[in-house]
Amino acid sequence: MADSKREIERKYEATVDTRLPELTRVAGVAAVDHRGVMELDAVYYDTEDHRLAADSLTLRRRTGGDDAGWHLKFPVASGIRDEIRAPLSDTLPGSLAALVRSRVRETELVPVVRLHSSRDVHHLLGLDGSLLAELSVDEVRAVRLAGGSGTAAWTEIEVELADDGDPAFLDAVEHRLRKAGVRPSASASKLARALAETAPGSGTAPKKQRTAKKTAARPRTAGDHVMAYVRDQITAVVALDPAVRRGLPDSVHQMRVATRRLRSAFRTYRKVLDRTVTDPVGDELKWLAAELGIDRDQEVLDERLRARIADLPGTLVLGPVRSRLRIWSVARRHGSRRRTVGVLDGKRYLALLESLDALQAAPPLLSAAAHAPEDTLPRAVLRDYERLATRIGHALELRPGPDRDLAMHDARKAAKRARYAGEAATAALGRPARKFARRMKAVQTVLGDHQDSVVARGALRTLAAQAHAAGETAFTWGLLYGHEEATAAAREQELPEVWERASRPKLRAALER
Q1: CA distance 71 to 442
Q2: Which helix (H) or strand (E) holds 361?
Q3: How many CB atoms lie within 10 A of CB 18?
Q4: How confident is the model at residue 216, as a pLDDT?
Q5: Interatomic CA distance for residues 113 and 162, integer angstroms
Q6: Is 82:67 a contact under the CB 8 Å cutoff?
Q7: Are 104 and 59 within 8 A, CB to CB?
Q8: pLDDT score, position 210
Q9: Beta-carbon count within 10 A of 466 CB
Q10: What distance in Å separates the CA atoms of residue 391 and residue 439, rounded to the nearest whole number?
Q11: Phi, psi at residue 159, to the nearest 5°?
Q12: How large is the greatest C-alpha to C-alpha distance in the chain, in angstroms?
């Protein structure tokens, strides 16, 4: 079984002759406990084309030290990574293999680098004897195992914050190290440095040239802008896959949003991207969004009903309301979560990821893609606006009831597409597109809350029936149902005003300037 740990650390350049400053002069440090030297032996795994390293992920099997085993690290922010650990074994544990599947697909993971580190460990202790941080001086020897046979050696200082420590403490340690002439490392990780310094020809190329990153070409045409947006959404889908598998908060929602934005871009910018290529991919994205929705929709419903119950005075919560909701929710979420992970493990999903890779490698651009973005993108955005206007008008003509509920749900989907169209065009069109997207989001929010109320009422009817069948009072469930009816009515009354602001001609005219 794998477990996770948030790792907050900083790395510094050093030599074998580097002397540590007096660390008890760091604010808050009462003592330094020298723990001695440990020998660490780590083999890093990746695909032959280094897909994990390209996304700043590291996967290793390490022996030695007090945390021997398999370690998979995901970047969170500069100097912050989530480390997922699994017990030592001869082969990669399935729990970790699943977390890199969206990157590696069916490609074999092979040993790429081996690092031997002699780690001299010091514990920085507070006044109460608690651990504030671990500082180590690592003498590292790297051997390339795939794509060459180069070697490298260096010394570095690593300072890792203790669990639940204050990141500001690392600033104080760094200030002390800098005064002693120690400077931050130019490499983000040992693996990154090892790959750079053991690569074929690395010994002759200037270091600055070897480590420089390629800068993406600035988007110029309509096609450039659309494909930049498409690539961003594909990157998000791939990156969110392990978060969904780990059950991280909001990960399902964010992954679903990325799939919807991607599909929406295909449909909105059909004059830029060839539909014979994007339509089949869009169909698969629709399938994936629907599968993710099973888990996400239940999550949203749970949060809504819990909040509604929490807002009620205690005297109006009659019977085992919270326990019944919890049992009902757990049963539904358990099944939906298992289904979601099953989808991500399936061949259909992996085939979709391969299709998205192919689309990036050979963008299906039409002749309009070569035009200036100001000539092409506004028309595409306004087509989605007109679609939304038609649906809003239809919904407002209907009397309250099931038909209007359905029409408002259709309008909500159109508002979401118009919003995404504006967001996709923002990099090219600037403030007018950004403002347009904000107004479309306001419409979407009103329509979304109305639809959530419709769904909540269906759930409340089910819960009330279950309570009644069990001999419990259904009073609270009926009360909540009434609250949801009032919410829906309020959103219906609010919609005309919100739509009036979103449909002002001046807002649309600004897009075409």
Answers
A1: 44
A2: helix 347-361
A3: 16
A4: 56
A5: 28
A6: no
A7: no
A8: 36
A9: 15
A10: 16
A11: -120, 115
A12: 82
Report CA dihedral (477, 480, 485, 491) to the nearest 10 degrees.
-150
Please state at what angle helix 373-397 crosses helix 475-502, rounded to 10 degrees. Answer: 130
Element (H, E) at 379: helix 373-397
Distance from C-alpha of 493 to C-alpha of 378, rounded to nearest angstrom = 31
Q: pLDDT tens digits for 142-201?
A: 999 998 889 999 999 999 999 999 999 999 999 999 999 999 999 989 999 999 999 987
Are 146 and 43 in contact, with CB atoms under 8 Å apart? no
pLDDT tens track for 64-120: 988 999 999 999 998 999 999 999 999 999 999 999 999 999 999 999 999 999 999
DSSP 429-452: H-HHHHHHHHHHHHHHHHHHHHHH
Please give the Cα distance from 288 to 256 (Å, whole number): 8
CB 105 within 8 A of CB 352: no
411/396 Cα distance (integer angstroms): 10
Classify residue 278 as exposed, middle or buried by CB count within 10 Å of its CB (0-12, 13-18, 19+): buried
Q: Which residue has the tokens 């794998």?
A: 2
Beta carbons of 412 and 448 less than 8 angstroms apart:
yes
Identify the CA nearest to 422 among candidates 497, 502, 494. Answer: 502
Q: Which of 343, 323, 347 is nearest to 335 (CA)?
A: 343
- For residue 383, the Cα-to-chain-centroid distance in whole angstroms is 30
- Residue 122's SS3 state is strand
Give the separation between CA 513 and CA 124, rounded to whole angstroms: 61
Residue 16: how many other CB atoms lie within 10 Å: 9
| Cα angle for residues 302, 305, 308 (degrees, 5° grid) | 145
Sign of CA dihedral 57, 63, 68, 69: positive
CA angle 447, 449, 450 (to 5 degrees): 65
Q: DSSP assignment, residue 184?
A: B
pLDDT grade, residue 47 (50/70/90)?
Answer: very high
